[in-house]
Design brief:
The relative contact order is 0.14. This protein is an alpha/beta fold. The longest helix is centred in the middle third of the chain and has 18 residues. Helices cover 36% and strands 20% of the residues.
Length: 307
């Protein structure tokens, strides 16, 4: 058993990760702002990541064998109006956490494929020069830089995971984030929206990774960091679905018709896919639940709606 500190453990992915860590025999300590009760397999320490003194006090004397840093603000649109807040939480919060750790603690940072930007063609490889296009992506890249810089001193060994469109449900909990194509189509299927609006003809391709597959990648990454290094790995499937395929799958799974309204094509790449060869080779990780139908079926069932 290892004692693992998890930030963002109350979030969509964090709750799934906590369950998977416990199922793997680990003791989990949740670091959050709210003094919520844990259960028999978890405990909680409280601190605001933007306050270094609070973080240091919360972690003082806390002997952990690994850190999974998930806590972040994640809305691209929101980041455009509050860039300072996004850098404060995503970048400075990461720095405060790193500064409060002792020993050569294995450190896993959850980052985002958004750091690559849109000015690339073909599958996105970890060696591409990042070109973040909004404050959210820029703040995640800043956090990556901080982790890499601290790792270079030998203080931590780190794995940075760049994730692509986490989706699906586990433990009866679907993604509460209202943005993205799958939540939008689900709202239409449940009668909460009259239609689904998409940009262009619906042929744009995006990939989706089941939340359980992402959590399992994080668990594997905990075993992988080497002191003095920060490795970047894409977490994805390398295969995608068109927007119309997503809509058609929701209609088939739910048995409910989905009205689609087409708007002007957006100024964005037609196809965004991750090159996942490195994570498969480095961690031996392969997504096993990330077929689009399984993702959508799990999401639908978690919403407790009977077709």
């Amino acid at each position: 058993m290892r004692r693992v500190l998890v930030t963002g453990g109350d979030g969509y992915l964090g709750r799934v990760l906590t369950l998977r860590l416990i199922e793997s025999g680990h003791e989990v300590i949740l670091l959050g702002r709210q003094p919520l009760a844990g259960d028999a397999a978890t405990r909680r320490v409280c601190a605001d990541l933007t306050d270094r003194q609070q973080v240091a006090a919360a972690l003082a004397g806390l002997d952990v064998d690994g850190v999974c840093h998930l806590a972040a603000r994640t809305s691209v649109r929101e980041s455009l109006v509050d860039p300072v807040g996004y850098f404060s939480v995503n970048a400075v919060g990461t720095l405060n956490l790193l500064a409060s750790l002792t020993g050569q603690t294995p450190f896993v940072l959850l980052s985002s494929g958004a750091v690559y930007g849109s000015d690339h063609s073909g599958p996105l490889t970890e060696g591409l020069v990042p070109r973040p296009e909004n404050p959210y992506a820029a703040s995640k890249l800043a956090a990556e830089s901080m982790v890499a810089s601290v790792a270079a001193t030998g203080a931590v060994g780190a794995i940075i995971l760049r994730c692509f469109n986490i989706a699906g449900a586990y433990g009866g909990r679907a993604n509460p984030n209202p943005s993205g194509i799958i939540p939008a189509v689900m709202r239409a299927a449940m009668g909460e929206a009259e239609h689904v609006a998409i940009n262009g003809d619906g042929s744009a391709v995006r990939e989706f990774t089941h939340v359980v597959d992402v959590a399992d990648a994080i668990v594997r990454a905990l075993e992988a960091p080497a002191a003095g290094k920060a490795e970047v790995l894409n977490v994805g499937t390398g295969a995608g679905s068109t927007m119309l395929e997503v809509i058609d799958t929701v209609a088939r799974v739910t048995g409910r018709p989905i009205e689609v309204v087409h708007g002007p094509a957006a100024n964005e790449p037609h196809t965004v896919l991750a090159d996942t060869r490195r994570i498969r080779e480095r961690l031996g990780w392969t997504p096993v639940r990330s077929g689009i139908e399984e993702i959508i079926r799990s999401d639908w069932e978690a919403r407790h709606v009977t077709p």
